[in-house]
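TODO from last week: model DEAD/DEAH box helicase.
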Amino acid sequence: MAFNHLPAGVHDALAPLSVTPVTHSVPMAKNHRSDRSPTDTAPSPSPGEVLDRLASGPSRSSRITHTEHVPPRAGRHAVWPDRIRAEVIAAVQHAGIEHPWAHQARVAEHALDGESVVVATGTASGKSLAYLVPVLSRLLDGSEAPNGRGATALYLAPTKALAADQCRSVKELSHPLGNAVRPAVYDGDTPVEEREWIRQYANYVLTNPDMLHLGILPSHPRWSSFLRALRYVVIDECHTYRGVFGSHVAQVLRRLRRLCARYGAEPVFLLASATAAEPSVAAGRLTGVRVTEVADDASPRGELVFALWEPPLTEFQGEKGAPVRRTATAETADLLTDLTVQGIRSVAFVRSRRGAELISVIAQERLAEVDRSLARRVAAYRGGYLPEERRALERALHSGELLGLAATTALELGVDVSGLDAVLIAGYPGTRASLWQQAGRAGRSGEGALAVLVARDDPLDTFLVHHPEALFDQPVESTVLDPDNPYVLAPHLCAAAAELPLTEEDLALFGPACEELLPQLEAAQLLRRRTKAWHWTRRERAADLADLRGQGGRPVQVVEAATGRLLGTVDAGAAHTTVHEGAVHLHQGRTYLVRELDLDDSVALVEQAEPPYSTVARDTTSISVLDTDTEIPWGDGRLCYGSVEVTNQVVSFLRRRLITGEVLGETKLDLPPRTLRTRAVWWTVTEDQLDAARINPEILGGALHAAEHASIGMLPLFATCDRWDIGGVSVPLHPDTLLPTVFVYDGHPGGAGFAERAFHTAASWLDATRQAIAACECDAGCPSCIQSPKCGNGNDPLHKRGAVRLLTELLKGAPGEGGATQEGGAT
């Protein structure tokens, strides 16, 4: 790490942060960044020293609950396969890479052998080079395609930013190869006048699944020469393709394979993933082909100091008088401010767009009090920005103009941000895979780095900062996706039929659920069978039926009422909760109030304002059982999994003071209800079980409600989901089960696989839930254990002790678990 050349007066502000240096067994590598002052010869502080500075002072030292030291690792070199073109090896050496790491050479060998392969190694382990070298070599091999165009390759990234970043890298690496490699980004931001050139001449096209689905596959005749010569399909950051999004992408890839076969091509798939459980299995489900796994990371790694940080309790009270911790947003903004003042290049990862904006605003204000020029060196980065705004921020990051950035996961996914010294993670990101992906953004040049997880006032975050073994002693999660989900498969069958009439030979490609779905699509007059094929019958574009990211309609445009200026967009599915009338909306450091939400025209009109609060939507939910797929006895109770219908309505919003989270008031809303058919896990208890747990009718509703909230908060530890991907309902007497019942459901049409994972890990999941509630130090329940930030009932009723007794009694009947608890079950 290095102090940057800071403005006059700022070094004086560092004095109070100085502490006695801490000796570490592994010294930091010397920093060679160009933004370091040539006259600054002070030694770079180690990550431990930087952490000590952040924690200096009596009020901060107790906030670190655990510090994990990940030791450095030496690298293992190999040689490139002899079939790689000499020109490509020379280009790689020209870029300063003399020899590949062992895993890079193995990936290249599999690719050259025509085997689909997934490389699942750590951040900054050179995954990009592993697949680029065989791809570039193949592109150089000449004009073997019938049209003389030569081989082509397709690159898929989950975000536009990553595709643009990779295009820059390919151009730099392939520059010595001349015009033999012609990379180009093809996405929604690509000018119309460039698109025809890309279709005809580009041989390495970088895009995203959305553009492949909506732009390339429906127009496949115009892409015929490209598809005919397609030899490799690169799928970067493939661990992000999970849940409903991953299921949609799986079907898009099957449509791509079908069209390639039509043109006589059978491309090899090259996938890159953060470290994941069973990467070859997940990659095989995603692509539908057999995939070989390379997961032995041979790259070197610097020391990583990883701290778990719990914000302190405040004197303020939340709902029902519960104690309130300082928000992770405010705490992270303070830490980002301190790191920026020290000249430590940092990124703060935030779970929400609004949180990213808020952290940058707070940090800028506090930096301006130290030195006004420093405020300009911190910014926010999130989805929803206009293309030119994203590009400007990316350039500022690469140049070092920005010292600190508050970013959503849009920056997590592989965008090359060199020279970062520290990463702040504002709230557990939902999976251990994402946690390590974000932490790995620092120290990317092999130097030591600091990562700090700042806990939210949330059951899972609180559990993790006090149970570090759940993070550091456990493998990352399996990727959950379900390509056979009928809500996913049906629109892709229609899209495939519109591209080329579907034949019976195609059905094996799309999966066994086709046989049941095709008659339903015929009955709905979406497909028509003629002789041996199914045809698309409508004039509309069939591809528009499938919403890959589950956003539920076209994005809502956020427009400044006074000027008509488009500020950005919000996903349709999030509009009711984020841009309702009266909502606070943050954009590029400016605060706006939503004056009107027009759902018919998908427009939210906003006006600039500076309210001293944020807003949080409240909703109500009811649920009915449509079909029970599986149920097993848990003592006298039952554990079930099946299909449900959920009706949800946003009914009000709370105003919370910015720094403390104190509730200032509630305002009613009049928004239409929305209905969702999805998958759920649910459990019931009997009167005898309630008696054994000492649960009387007065506290039953609160005990069930508290158990529901906490179990939703804990599920991301067992399934690759975020608590906002799932929902729950608890009812003292449900009309379908005729018993007290707790439901946890997937928040996506047709399900996303999360509830199914909950069903199969229920004993461990619910035991961890019980432990988390019981271990919380509060008396009657708080946001750290049983209160939920999205509860539609204002967290009322809740009964903490009743929930613990109820779960203890339920777990006594868990099959094969031998009692209420399972040793190690919490992790």
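Done. The longest strand covers residues 613-634.
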